[in-house]
């Protein structure tokens, strides 16, 4: 089978390519990635001789047409993915997340190629704290940020291309991922690499916001389950019941690194900061029989810390610029 993975040099896409090469040796993998600040060719080093890499833009219609003509399946991870960046400059989010998805949809429509669309739980907005309610496949879209609104728009394009043109597509909306190869701008790797470089972790606002953490390998095993067993035209939510508030995450990282649990700073909150995300993955579990492998967040976090400790050369080049950008907008409180 010929597989085109967009955004395969990013965090989740690279892990997806690693898993695919290891577990599905008959799959011919081509990665299309623009190598933005978030893409890192080195993340594909372990599989470099087993895949084809194309540097390019998912919004480049001519290139996308050529690649899709020669593939059986497209899995679309490529996106501008960071909420804080979308507040500073939304333009690339509209271009990549909306125009890029549109470009891929036109190509899979033309060649009748199976398409899987990677999306986020953030399209549903946020939930109250301390409430049993969770997102399901029927929750109304209500995105808060430029990032989540462009992801929501891209999901709606997919739904329309399914209904109007019969495109053979599935959509998955996953909760917050953690694991190896995640850019140091994101919450968990930022705090781990802060501690490893002697800097105090930075907690937005009061640290009470809740995210529903899932290990990236579990996200990717769910994606394969949906590709192989999901019903065309359907949406599946992916989550592993990992709700944890941000303060607890920071305290756990500090503890696992042998520091005092209170050695962190509260900093200015993110504007429009979503309070809580929580996924009800019943459909995926009962209809498709999927289950996560990582059930202990603390253990997964410890393994992730070990990975960052062992791969300093992977993240050091990005760390300085990332922290300089944060320093421009962030103020330590109290
Ligand atoms: P990432 O920022 O780590 O990687 C994105 C990749 O896409 C990078 O390699 C980048 O170079 C590439 N890219 C960006 N613009 C491109 C373009 N125009 N053309 C081609 N390539 C381009 O992101 P991630 O965290 O791996 O997220 C991957 C996908 O998963 C995104 O669609 C995101 O919305 C979704 N998602 C992420 C999470 C999460 O917790 N990180 C959770 C749910 C869903
Ligand atoms: O330094 C920080 N301090 C902090 O308290 C950073 C970077 C973040 N935070 C908070 C904000 C969020 O409540 O931590 C939480 C997680 O932040 P991010 O890692 O930026 O993730 P989030 O905004 O929740 O979005 C992530 O999950 C859904 C991904 O970046 C998205 O791509 C995905 O769609």
Automatic annotation (TrEMBL):
Domain of life: Bacteria
Cross-referenced CDD domains: dTDP_GD_SDR_e
Catalytic activity: dTDP-alpha-D-glucose = dTDP-4-dehydro-6-deoxy-alpha-D-glucose + H2O
Cofactor dependency: NAD(+)
Gene3D superfamilies given in the database record: NAD(P)-binding Rossmann-like Domain, UDP-galactose 4-epimerase, domain 1
Keyword rRNA processing: no
Keywords of this entry: Lyase, NAD
Pfam family, one: GDP_Man_Dehyd
Domain NAD(P)-binding: 4-301
GO molecular-function term, one example from the UniProt record: dTDP-glucose 4,6-dehydratase activity
GO biological process entries: nucleotide-sugar metabolic process
EC numbers, comma separated: 4.2.1.46
Enzyme class: lyase
Alphabetized InterPro entries for the sequence: dTDP_Gluc_deHydtase (IPR005888), NAD(P)-bd_dom (IPR016040), NAD(P)-bd_dom_sf (IPR036291)
Similarity section: Belongs to the NAD(P)-dependent epimerase/dehydratase family. dTDP-glucose dehydratase subfamily.
UniProt-recorded name of the protein: dTDP-glucose 4,6-dehydratase
Native source organism of the sequence: Rhodococcus pyridinivorans
Lineage: Bacteria, Bacillati, Actinomycetota, Actinomycetes, Mycobacteriales
Gene name of this polypeptide: rfbB
């Amino acid at each position: 089978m010929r597989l085109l993975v967009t955004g395969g040099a990013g965090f989740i896409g690279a892990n997806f390519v690693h898993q695919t090469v290891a577990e599905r040796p008959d799959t011919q993998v081509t990665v299309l990635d623009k190598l933005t600040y978030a893409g890192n060719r080195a993340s594909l080093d372990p599989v470099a001789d087993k895949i084809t890499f194309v540097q390019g833009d998912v919004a480049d219609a001519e290139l996308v047409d050529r690649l899709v003509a020669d593939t059986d399946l497209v899995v679309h991870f490529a996106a501008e993915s960071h909420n804080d960046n979308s507040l500073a400059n939304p333009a690339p989010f509209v271009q990549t997340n909306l125009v890029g998805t549109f470009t891929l949809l036109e190509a899979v429509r033309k060649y009748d190629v199976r398409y899987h669309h990677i999306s986020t739980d953030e399209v549903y907005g946020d939930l109250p704290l301390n409430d049993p309610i969770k997102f399901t496949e029927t929750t109304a879209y209500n995105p808060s940020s430029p990032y989540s609104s462009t992801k929501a728009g891209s999901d709606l394009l997919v739904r329309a291309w399914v209904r109007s043109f019969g495109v053979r597509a599935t959509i998955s909306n996953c909760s917050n991922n953690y694991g190896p190869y995640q850019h140091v701008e994101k919450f968990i790797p930022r705090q781990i690499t802060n501690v490893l470089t002697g800097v105090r972790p930075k907690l937005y606002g009061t640290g009470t916001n809740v995210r529903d953490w899932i290990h990236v390998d579990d996200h990717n095993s769910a994606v394969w389950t949906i590709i192989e067993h999901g019903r065309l035209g359907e949406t599946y939510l992916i989550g592993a019941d990992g709700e944890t508030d941000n303060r607890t995450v920071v305290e756990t990282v500090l503890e696992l690194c042998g520091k005092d649990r209170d050695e962190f700073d509260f900093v200015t909150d993110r504007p429009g900061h979503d309070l809580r995300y929580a996924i009800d993955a019943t459909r995926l579990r009962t209809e498709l029989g999927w289950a996560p492998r990582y059930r202990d967040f603390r253990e997964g976090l410890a393994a992730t810390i070990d990975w960052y400790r062992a791969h300093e050369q992977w993240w050091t080049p990005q760390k300085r610029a990332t922290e300089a950008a944060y320093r421009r907008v962030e103020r330590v409180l109290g």
